[in-house]
Amino acid sequence: MNGRHPLVAWTLGWILPGAGHFYLGQRARGGVLCGALVGCFAAGVLLGGRGTVSAAHPEYFALQCGAGAPAGLAWAAGTDEPSDIAVARRDLGMLYTLVPALLNLVAAMDAAARAAGANPGGVPVPAAPEPSSAIERKDEEEA
Amino acid sequence: MILHRFLEFLPLALVLGASLAALRHERLDAIQHAAVRNTVRIVITLVLGCLALQCLLWAVQD
């Protein structure tokens, strides 16, 4: 543990993509996640129209809720829009909202794991090499 | 048409690559390099997978 509560990290990360990592002080990681996931979700809503995030299709809406606040904002914007959006475009918008929503759940779990002290996927730091030759040992003794 | 469909999925590959890179690396420059690498890998995998499926389809049709 690093003084941060995993449940708080998960909740923040779910509500706003990247916020869980910001809470842990990992700003670059949080910024990239926030930009990528919110940007993709917004692109999906722009492509498919406001009706993309709607309780009219609950199976997709439940998954879209994984994006947190962006999904809530898109849902609150309502669905009163002209119905002349092509089906293919609506489907693409749906895909663009579903992928970041599911990725956000993974990111929130990653933030919670890091708050609990884990370093998932971390690159191990190589240990310092031991001095092997007598010359190196002599140099160290002189220093 | 195929290129059009491919371009539709390219942003998703970029988002997936960037997210995976952000989860694995911490420094911004490392994240950027890994995001490009991941995106290229995803695109190559997609292209090869589509080609394999197309070849399978041709074989089945023949």
Let me know the average pLDDT of chain A: 84
- Which H/E pattern describes the elements of chain B? HH
| Tally of contiguous helical segments of chain A | 7
Strand percentage of chain B, roughly? under 5%
- The first-to-last residue Cα distance of chain B is 24 Å
The largest interface is: A-B, 24 and 18 residues
Q: If helices are DSSP runs of H or I spanning 4 or more residues, what is the number of helices of chain B?
A: 2
Strand content of chain A: under 5%
- Please tell me the total number of domains of chain B: 1
Return Rg of chain B in Å.
15 Å
Order of helices and strands of chain A: HHHHHHH
Protein structure class of chain A: mainly alpha
* Radius of gyration of CA atoms of chain A, rounded to a whole number: 23 Å
Oligomer status: heterodimer
Uncertain segments of chain A of ≥5 residues (pLDDT<50)? Answer: none
Give a quick account of the main beta sheet of chain A: strands, pairing sense, barrel closure. Answer: none
What features would you describe in this structure?
- The complex is a heterodimer of chains A (143) and B (62).
- With 143 residues, chain A is an all-alpha fold.
- Chain A has one domain (6-118).
- Helix content of chain A is 63%, strand content 0%.
- Chain A is built from 7 helices and no strands.
- Chain A has helices spanning 6-15, 19-23, 27-48, 58-64, 69-76, 87-115, 134-142.
- In chain B, α1 runs antiparallel to α2.
- Chain B is built from 2 helices and no strands.
- In chain B, 92% of the residues lie in helices and 0% in strands.
- Chain B has 62 residues and is mostly helical.
- The chains are: A mainly alpha (143), B mainly alpha (62).
- The interface between A and B is medium-sized, with 24 and 18 residues.
